[in-house]
């Protein structure tokens, strides 16, 4: 973000209501809906936590004369530390978004035509309940699947479980972090958690492999990254693109895309051959080290050079740099790691490199997260399914420990192992999050019912039978956030203002639908505050205190091995598994091996994509505050390649992928900061939903170009960096 944009953003963030009024964005219906006599004068401060991304930062909403004014970080919150990222500060725009869904909608004509009839909530629930009862009678409750993202889906999950379906999935597993969690589980017996248990602020050396801290705006990590830089931490960045994080690096390695495992093997080869690894740690906690060392002995820097494009001496120098600061060297596990289909093994390579450096359980590496004990609400038991989950028949992907979204999609298309006839979709735009839009649409056409709950008319909503408009996070309660973090705390989301139209909170929808389905016994509480108070009082905490402060902090606990955290590795051997018998017995490589990725067709470039600090996925592009910061994406093209094609920054082109799919027009960014064999674009733009008037047609959709994907054989994740594009010039 340039300085002009930053100043502009701060101006808007400090007086959003004034800026919104100037551009005609304040919804007059809000004023009309409120009883003027009941509107409080002056400024009110309501603590809550953010929902613009999944990080759940503590925030304080300011309401001025009854109208939402601005949002700031809650200084009591360990995640935000009193600061919000641009998305969080701009969250006020979600309330004033003119494209928001306003009332329940039932499809009028064919799916995807975006023609609707406005109905009452009662009519919408009657329609849904009738369809769900028919599915249950005809096919069984398992034939309804639920897709969800974020804590807001908790109550709807509860209703779907009470209904009898175990098919509940989030794209965050198979399309994002799943390979990382599997790779670390196979090595240490535990995954990385969310937020990640990375001790960035205390690290003396940080290695980022395709992790775009500063662009992929996870608030706490970015703040800690700034702390580490201020403390003169050595930064090593591996990326085909010179990212914001790369600009802070001591060493930047512009790797050939798809060759990361080769670099990891070469780094580990140097550490072992030069006896630079943490011998005491490995001998004490490691299993199968001799076999591991034998497996990697031929993966020298000279072997890796023609694969990766990284000079042998640079590989050696960076390996020695990591060893110099061990165990306070953190090789970051990443977040969105579904790249090439070998992602669980690549993530295992990252875990093994951290194990050699002795960083797991150590200060500056990976701490042990802690939380407070808040019991679940005492609900009746859920019905048990005889059929089991549909997503992973015959345990095809043996190390998938969460439900695979694309597995549900495949079953919806094929009807095997049993039919899926209903989808319930909460707060996730499946057409932008799952690869191959054509397959998703094909699955939708096999459904008897699709319900979408969202705050904006996303692309997936355009294909729904029923669309239910949710209150934005500043207008609703949600479940308690009992966070796993470096220090324990409980956070509350609560409404700062009322919803402007007929929008309702998710908990209310879940409860009303359950009652229509005859499942009222699963909601013995009358209002969510009764639920929240019950959970907190059963844990010995005050709901009143939580409402007032937004945060209840617990006592700090040990988070490192040398502070008294029990040294436990829940693997079959009870140790760090350098050589995995689990993998070997399942027919996979016990130590990661490198396979060169397929190259592009002649004249094509590998398509890479990532995040921007002012947008979340494809969810924020109608937000007037955030779109003012970034209203379209660009395609990064190496300046030499741009010159060959006669392109310059600011030109518009279209991208055509290897399967002939052509994007919307997109602006060129000609730059030296990317390799010649790839291009890069920010995810989430190129909306084609007609109801997203502000975002419609802005920029190009990377999701539309991701027609190919490579499935990870260990856990079913979808590697999506296997697509290639060429340029189509504008006439």
CATH topology of the domain at 198-367: Dimethylsulfoxide Reductase, domain 2
- How much strand content do the residues show? 15-25%
Shape: globular
What's the CATH superfamily of the domain at 198-367, by name?
Dimethylsulfoxide Reductase, domain 2
**For this structure, what is the CATH class of the domain at 198-367?**
Alpha Beta
Low-confidence stretches: 1-37
The number of E-state strands comes to: 27
Q: Characterize the biggest β-sheet.
A: 7 strands, mixed
* Overall SS class: alpha/beta
Helical segment count: 25
What is the correct CATH architecture of the domain at 198-367?
Answer: 3-Layer(aba) Sandwich
- Measured as a percent range, the helix fraction is 25-40%
- What is the CA-atom radius of gyration, in angstroms? 25 Å
Word description of this protein:
The structure is a single chain. The model is unreliable at 1-37 (pLDDT under 50). The two termini are 31 Å apart. Among the domains are: 198-367, Dimethylsulfoxide Reductase, domain 2; 605-729, Barwin-like endoglucanases (Beta Barrel). By secondary structure, the chain is α/β, with parallel strands linked by helices.
Short description:
With 731 residues, this protein is an alpha/beta fold.
Comma- or semicolon-separated keywords:
single chain, 731 residues, alpha/beta, Dimethylsulfoxide Reductase, domain 2, Barwin-like endoglucanases, 7-stranded mixed sheet, 6-stranded mixed β-barrel, 27 strands, globular, disordered N terminus
């Amino acid at each position: 973000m340039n300085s002009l944009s930053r100043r502009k953003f701060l101006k808007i963030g400090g007086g959003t209501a004034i800026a919104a009024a100037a551009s005609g964005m304040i919804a007059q219906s809000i004023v009309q809906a409120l009883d003027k006599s009941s509107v409080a004068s002056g400024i009110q401060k309501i603590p809550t936590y953010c929902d613009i991304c999944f990080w759940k930062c503590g925030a304080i909403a300011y309401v001025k004369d009854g109208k939402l004014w601005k949002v700031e970080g809650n200084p009591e919150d360990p995640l935000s530390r009193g600061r919000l990222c641009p998305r969080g500060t701009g969250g006020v725009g979600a309330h004033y978004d003119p494209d928001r869904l306003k009332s329940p909608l039932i499809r009028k004509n064919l799916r995807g035509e975006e023609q609707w009839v406005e109905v009452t909530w009662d009519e919408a629930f009657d329609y849904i309940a009738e369809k769900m009862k028919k599915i249950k009678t005809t096919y069984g409750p398992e034939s309804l699947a639920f897709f969800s993202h974020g804590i807001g889906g908790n109550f709807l999950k509860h209703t779907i479980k009470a209904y009898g379906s175990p098919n509940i999935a989030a794209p965050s597993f198979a399309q994002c972090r799943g390979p990382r969690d599997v790779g670390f589980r196979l090595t240490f017996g535990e995954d990385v958690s969310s937020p990640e248990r990375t001790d960035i602020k205390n690290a003396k050396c940080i290695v980022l492999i395709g992790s775009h801290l500063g662009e992929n705006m996870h608030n706490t990590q970015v703040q800690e990254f700034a702390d580490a830089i201020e403390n003169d931490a050595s930064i090593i960045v591996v990326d085909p693109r010179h990212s914001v994080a790369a600009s802070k690096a001591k060493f930047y390695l512009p790797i050939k895309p798809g060759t990361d495992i080769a670099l990891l093997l070469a780094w580990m080869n140097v550490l072992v051959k030069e006896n630079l690894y943490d011998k005491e740690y490995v001998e004490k906690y490691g299993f199968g080290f001799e076999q591991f060392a034998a497996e990697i002995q031929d993966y020298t820097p000279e072997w890796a050079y023609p694969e990766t494009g990284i000079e042998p001496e640079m590989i050696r120098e960076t390996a020695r740099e990591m060893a110099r600061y061990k165990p306070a060297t953190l090789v970051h596990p990443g977040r969105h790691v579904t790249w090439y289909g070998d992602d669980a093994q690549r993530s295992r390579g990252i875990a093994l490199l951290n194990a050699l450096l002795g960083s797991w359980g150590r200060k500056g590496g990976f701490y042990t997260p802690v939380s407070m004990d808040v019991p679940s609400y005492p609900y009746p038991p859920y019905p048990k399914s005889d059929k089991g989950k549909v997503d992973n028949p015959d345990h095809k992907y043996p190390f998938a420990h969460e439900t695979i979204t694309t597995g549900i999609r495949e079953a919806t298309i094929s009807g095997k192992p049993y039919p899926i006839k209903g989808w319930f979709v909460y707060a996730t735009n499946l057409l932008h999050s799952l690869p191959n839009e054509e397959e998703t649409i094909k699955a939708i056409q096999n459904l008897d019912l699709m319900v979408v709950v969202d705050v904006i008319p996303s692309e997936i909503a355009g294909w729904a039978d029923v669309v239910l408009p949710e209150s934005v996070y500043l207008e609703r309660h949600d479940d308690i956030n009992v966070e796993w973090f470096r220090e324990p705390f409980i956070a509350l989301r609560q409404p700062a203002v009322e919803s402007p139209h007929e929008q309702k909170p998710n908990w209310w929808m879940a409860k009303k639908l359950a009652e229509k389905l005859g499942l009222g016994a699963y909601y013995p509480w009358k209002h969510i505050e009764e639920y929240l108070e019950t959970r907190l009082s059963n844990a010995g905490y005050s709901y009143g205190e939580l409402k007032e402060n937004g945060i209840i902090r617990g006592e700090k606990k040990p988070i490192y091995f040398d502070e008294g955290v029990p040294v436990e590795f829940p693997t079959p051997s009870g140790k760090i598994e350098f050589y995995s018998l689990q993998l070997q017995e399942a027919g996979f490589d016990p130590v990661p091996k490198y396979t060169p990725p397929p190259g592009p067709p002649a004249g094509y470039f590998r398509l890479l994509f990532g995040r921007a600090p002012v947008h979340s996925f494809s969810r924020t592009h109608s937000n007037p505050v955030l779109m003012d910061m970034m209203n379209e994406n660009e395609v990064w093209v190496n300046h030499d390649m741009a010159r060959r094609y006669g392109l310059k920054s600011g030109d518009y082109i279209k991208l055509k992928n290897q399967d002939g799919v052509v994007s919307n027009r997109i602006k060129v960014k000609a730059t030296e900061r990317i390799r010649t064999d790839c291009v890069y674009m920010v995810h989430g733009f190129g909306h084609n939903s007609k109801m997203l008037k502000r975002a419609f047609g802005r920029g190009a959709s990377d999701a539309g170009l991701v027609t190919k994907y490579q499935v990870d054989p260990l856990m079913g994740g979808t590697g999506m960096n296997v697509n290639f594009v060429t340029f189509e010039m504008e006439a």
